[in-house]
Amino acid sequence: MPRVVVDVMLKPEILDPQGRAVMGAFTRLGVHGVADVRQGKRFEITLDGDATDEAIADLHRMAEELLSNPVIESYDLRVEE
Amino acid sequence: MPRVVVDVMLKPEILDPQGRAVMGAFTRLGVHGVADVRQGKRFEITLDGDATDEAIADLHRMAEELLSNPVIESYDLRVEE
Q1: Closest-CA residue to A44 (of A73, A79, A18, A74)
Q2: Which residues of A touch B61 (CB under 8 A)?
Q3: Would you call B43 and A44 a contact, using CB atoms and an 8 Å cutoff?
């Protein structure tokens, strides 16, 4: 069954306190050489049937309206397998 | 600058209430043909320097100890660019 992956990340110009916190923890744990960390969400969507144009269009609509906040986030949608 | 992506997902045998909620919302919004939704985390880590074996080993350690909970989650780490 085809799988669609949607990655949702904060836009580059939006501050990411979660990513900052992770980066601070890296430093405290002795991991250096990291310039930046951004944290986002990943959705793995398994389809019942084929990844038709209509099914993908529906998921683009969901990614924009439900999975992300277009004011501060951008998403990447791709079909895998 | 090289970028390392770490995806953290719940293990397949662990129930995912967030994914379930998303799937329920899909159905209510008229999107059918979805068999399953799983929600996880995505980390984009930008390195200061090269993606040396040592830097990657450090990040594997962080992925296991800090970014994921190995009891219920698995992670995938890859170097991009």
Answers
A1: A79
A2: 31
A3: no
Instruction: For residue A39, give the chain B residue with the closest CA.
Output: B43
Shortest distance, CA B66 to any CA of chain A (angstroms): 8
Q: What is the pLDDT of residues A13-50, one digit of tens each?
A: 999 999 999 999 999 999 999 999 999 999 999 999 99
Q: What CATH number does domain B3-80 carry, 3.30.1280.10, 3.40.50.620, 3.40.50.11030, 3.40.50.1000? A: 3.30.1280.10
Nearest to A36 among B39, B46, B49 (CB): B46
DSSP A49-76: S---HHHHHHHHHHIIIII--TTTEEEE
> Domain-by-domain residue ranges, chain B?
3-80
Task: Inform me whether the C-beta atom of residue A34 falls under 8 Å from chain B C-beta atoms.
Answer: yes
Token readout for B45 is 């880590």
Q: Which pair of tokens denotes residue A58?
A: 């529906």
What averages of pLDDT result for each successive group of 10 residues across chain B (81 residues)? Answer: 97 97 97 96 97 97 97 97 73
